[in-house]
Prior knowledge:
Layout: E1 3-7, H1 10-19, E2 28-32, E3 42-43, H2 51-60, E4 65-68, H3 71-75, H4 78-83, E5 92-96, H5 102-105, H6 107-116, E6 124-128, H7 132-140, E7 146-150, E8 159-162, H8 165-176, E9 187-192, E10 197-205, E11 210-212, E12 217-218, E13 221-223, E14 227-230, E15 235-238, H9 245-265, E16 270-281, E17 284-291, H10 299-305, H11 310-318, E18 333-340, E19 366-369, E20 372-375, E21 378-381, E22 385-393, H12 396-408
Parallel strand pairs: 1-2, 1-4, 2-3, 4-5
Antiparallel strand pairs: 5-16, 6-9, 7-8, 7-9, 10-11, 10-16, 12-15, 13-14, 15-18, 16-17, 18-22, 19-22, 20-21
Helix pairs in contact: 1-10, 7-8
Bound molecules: adenosine monophosphate and glycine.
Residues 218, 233, 291, 295-296, 298 line the site of glycine.
Amino acid sequence: MNILLIGSGGREHAFAWKLSQSKLCNKLFIAPGNAGTALCGTNLPVAVNDFELLASACTSNQVDMILVGPEEPLVKGIYDFFKNNEATKHIAVIGPSKAAAQLEGSKAFAKAFMKRHNIPTAAYGEFTAENYAAGVEYLKGHSLPVVLKADGLASGKGVLICKSNLEALSEFELMLHQLKFGDAGKKVVVEEFLNGIELSIFVLTDGENYLLLPEAKDYKRIGEGDTGLNTGGMGAVSPLPFVDEAFLQKVKEIIIEPTIAGLKKDQLEYKGFIFFGLMNDNGEPKVIEYNCRMGDPETEVVIPRIKNDLVELLIATTQQKLHEITIDTDNRSVAAVVAVSGGYPGDFKTGIPVLGLDNEVFQSSLMFHSATKIKKDEVVTTGGRVLVVTSFGNTISEAAEHSNYMLEQLYFEGIYFRSDIGYEFE
Ligand code: AMP
Ligand code: GLY
């Protein structure tokens, strides 16, 4: 079959790398892709939210299936657009319907969903300009720290952890009255702060059945030792030594299965990946957030650990036959380290040539491009997170050390990466 993959990050390069290995994949297209995905298939110069142009690209290239990487097209309804369009309704879209994508698109929707289906999560209240005074009262009496979240998509910036009531009140005012996060913050979720260790759990669901994929941990802060500003993710590791069978069993019973049953009960069509951002509080899992897609850079460690044919998994998803499949995972440890542009997550330059990519040492690791393009036969940077190196090892620290070594063989002006990914593990 012919497949169109939507997106342009490291997650999409990892997907493209895996899809291109399948004997079931005839032609692979990536829209818009990057210099790395161009090595796995054909990049199409179409933006991820241009549904009309994506549909005509599908028709002219006889695409049978679409895999959507980022959340924005899902939240904007790409699934429904293809399904309700005569020319494209035969194309299977891997991802949730617009209504189900609200699990990520609206934090208030996700909280109400969890409450309705008894899924453990932090206690919360939701407020708009209409009940502003009630919000102020709620905040005044709240324990600290307190978490404020813009309801809508805010490029990962809409969550504030406030250490004092004064800070919380001031941020609350900025969000609801000054629209600090634009329309995304017209509704604010105020939430109890959860203690524990964060982890990411992923499933692929066909709406009825699900497959549990390898778990991962993502390193969000820019600085070593988890310091400094938040980023899209500076690295990831898998598997996690503290995640044992008993914990996974609990996650399945009290989180994953009630989520899938809840989607079905609420008639929310969902055939795709669900990303559960969890807090493990002494063995008790709670949901911090849902994402309606895979994570980045988590995909760059999860996908290399899956031995199954990915296209086979996606076909079983569309045919609601995931119960017939068993996931086969590589038990080795994996660490992905992200190389970013100097200045990221603040201002940075782009268009900088990346040198050393053809070094033969890279054959012992996987190199995924996150923000690159080819310009006059040269690979140049196009964004903040530029490249990801994923390595295997007997332990997480061995895998991470290998990825660090690989990144030392690369150069672009301003290159920075965290050399402590996986620091808390052996
Ligand atoms: P989110 O966009 O919901 O993933 O939130 C971004 C980050 O904020 C999460 O990855 C957590 O590190 C942190 N966070 C969000 N909600 C909470 C909470 N209720 N308690 C503690 N940390 C939180
Ligand atoms: N790495 C976190 C995310 O993809 O949302």
